[in-house]
Amino acid sequence: MKLALLTVLATVGAVTVNPLPQPQSIEWLNENAIVFNPCANLQLNIDNELVEKNLNRVLNSVLETKYYPQAIEKPISSYQPFPTGTVKRGNGAIDSITITIENSSIPLQLGADESYNLTIDNNAINIDSVSTWGSIQALKTLQQLVVYEKGQFFIEGSVRIEDHPNYPHRGVMLDSARNFLSVKKIKEQIDIMSLVKLNVLHWHITDTQLWPLQLESIPGMIEGAYLEREQYSKNDVEDIINYAYERGIRVIPEIDMPGHSRAGYINVNEDVLACQHSWWSNDDYSLHTAVEPPASQLDILNNETYLMVEKIYNEVSGLFQDDVFHVGADELQANCYNYSQLFVDWIKANLSRTYRDLSQYWIDHSIPIFRKIPNRRLMMWEDILTTPEAAFTIPQDVILQSWSDYLRGSNNIKKLTSKGFDVVVSLNNYLYLDCGYGGFVTNDPRYLDSPQNDEFNTGNGGSWCNPYKTWQRIYDFDFTTNLTDSEQKHILGAEAALWSEQVDNTVLTQKLWPRLAALAESVWSGNRDSNGNYRTNWLSQRIFNFREWLVALGYDALPLVPKYCLQNPHACDLYLNQTVYNDYT
Ligand SMILES: *[C@@H]1O[C@H](CO)[C@@H](O)[C@H](O)[C@H]1NC(C)=O
Ligand SMILES: *[C@@H]1O[C@H](CO)[C@@H](O)[C@H](O)[C@H]1NC(C)=O
Ligand SMILES: *[C@@H]1O[C@H](CO)[C@@H](O)[C@H](O)[C@H]1NC(C)=O
Ligand SMILES: *[C@@H]1O[C@H](CO)[C@@H](O)[C@H](O)[C@H]1NC(C)=O
Ligand SMILES: *[C@@H]1O[C@H](CO)[C@@H](O)[C@H](O)[C@H]1NC(C)=O
Ligand SMILES: *[C@@H]1O[C@H](CO)[C@@H](O)[C@H](O)[C@H]1NC(C)=O
Ligand SMILES: *[C@@H]1O[C@H](CO)[C@@H](O)[C@H](O)[C@H]1NC(C)=O
């Protein structure tokens, strides 16, 4: 134990520049700082527009930011020799980048190889990757290796990095359907995601409250937008997709169906909806028709529903090229359908039918529509197989997103992977970033300071998914707990989710960053050191620096600690004992 502790400390002491996510393997070969001049018109050996654009962005950003990490174990300037004087190209300074890409036609899709090797010594930077996407990841690492001090840009020593992600799906879900998120702000998140190698933006575009997407095939849908200036045109969508693509990030659209559907539909043909005029909560939770206002779901038994679903699916499919499309399927509220005459008659016609038959009806009638687009995998929330209203069967190749309770003894991730389903993990108790802010519903007397409200006000305080997820909670989450090897192979990765009932442009960046970087690291290279111990405390300096870097880059990322804590490594630890985590596992 003592030996292990010494090893860990020695490693941390030597690595002053500490990229996030931590690479799988990073080896500093010496401490001879290498001058790096971002203006030096570096020679790139290959003709690859994407790589070139990324390199230019890295160089410009390095130049503009002039970043120097404060949260280090040892001042970089104590290294010898420290370069001084005018930087001359070809005189101990890097003047070329050699990039080798095995196959630059590998498309950006689920499972695309993102591995890379990055070697920096004396005058040269070498990057080897299988795909273009691996080289882009390497450049993101390079961006974090260059520091600025005393008028010089430099890399602190020769270094060799071998790197690849643990999981192919590493993302965040943004919700632009409770409050609108502008194209500019979404692009800002894409920029930051790329810095930490997240590669999936899951875009929950529509919900009961808001339909912000213009459709040519059903022009009336956009009446479901809040404002004329809060809409996404076809060009906006293409702009976001291209912006993400250039940074190696896939955009997976979600049209949430058959629950979470109202805005837009209600303007075009409200016959395809059920319970759209019901009171959502009924003042008696057992009679509620929705989890949040306003109530309404697609009427699964109406033929016209499928005509509309097909038009929407086809047009949105044309906008998004990704090989995965999310079709929702979460939180179907059974009571809603008691407002549908079609449903009431359907039950009367056969009293053995249940809500499960209804969900199965949805699957049987919607999947053939979705299947008409080839080479495409569907993604759904896990509810379609885990709730009391679940369908009986769904196609085996559907990717399921697991979000609900992960109580001791009830583990949906295990249930689903053991049945052979591929799973993306988004458990609300670790990865929902909207939690911990209280509730948003109004006329809520539970906030009154009265004895009958004590439990509410000392407990969740209206936030159904308390507590707020801190970066430490996110990082410590072991989502493969209790999985067999074959079950683990069905984990595609993880996604944090930011539902936007209380989020819009003004707070978006702060609610995501820097804590999302903790997930970015755990899905890239894990949350354990080589001895199998949590390395959360070694993430602390990385994530504190990362936050300072974001601020230097001009982003409003939330402060995590008093700056004292980052300038004095580990001074703010709760325990002096650095292996205290072992007491809790
Ligand atoms: C390069 O990748 C493309 C797309 O995956 C594939 O079709 C092609 O065969 C690959 N080329 C080589 C030489 O492996
Ligand atoms: C990186 O280097 C290792 C060891 O030399 C090698 O096995 C691997 O294939 C290299 N990876 C890439 C992407 O070139
Ligand atoms: C819905 O379509 C089915 C099959 O085409 C047909 O049998 C049924 O009568 C239609 N129902 C309504 C309400 O139009
Ligand atoms: C809704 O209808 C179902 C089926 O007829 C019935 O079992 C259930 O009690 C009804 N729910 C409510 C809240 O009335
Ligand atoms: C009635 O519904 C049950 C449950 O779905 C089904 O097993 C049964 O075949 C149905 N009966 C008829 C006559 O359709
Ligand atoms: C893992 O398995 C143990 C032993 O069966 C159980 O106590 C624990 O709740 C499980 N945890 C999860 C997250 O499945
Ligand atoms: C630190 O905590 C670990 C786990 O409880 C314990 O085994 C170890 O003895 C402690 N080390 C010191 C120096 O107290």
UniProtKB/TrEMBL annotation:
Keywords: Glycoprotein, Glycosidase, Hydrolase, Signal. The active site is at E331. Residues 19-145 form the Beta-hexosaminidase eukaryotic type N-terminal domain. Residues 1-17 form the signal peptide. Its EC number is 3.2.1.52. It is an enzyme of class 3 (hydrolase). Residues 167-526 form the Glycoside hydrolase family 20 catalytic domain. GO terms for molecular function: beta-N-acetylglucosaminidase activity. It catalyses: Hydrolysis of terminal non-reducing N-acetyl-D-hexosamine residues in N-acetyl-beta-D-hexosaminides. One of its GO terms (biological process) is carbohydrate metabolic process. Belongs to the glycosyl hydrolase 20 family. This is Beta-hexosaminidase.
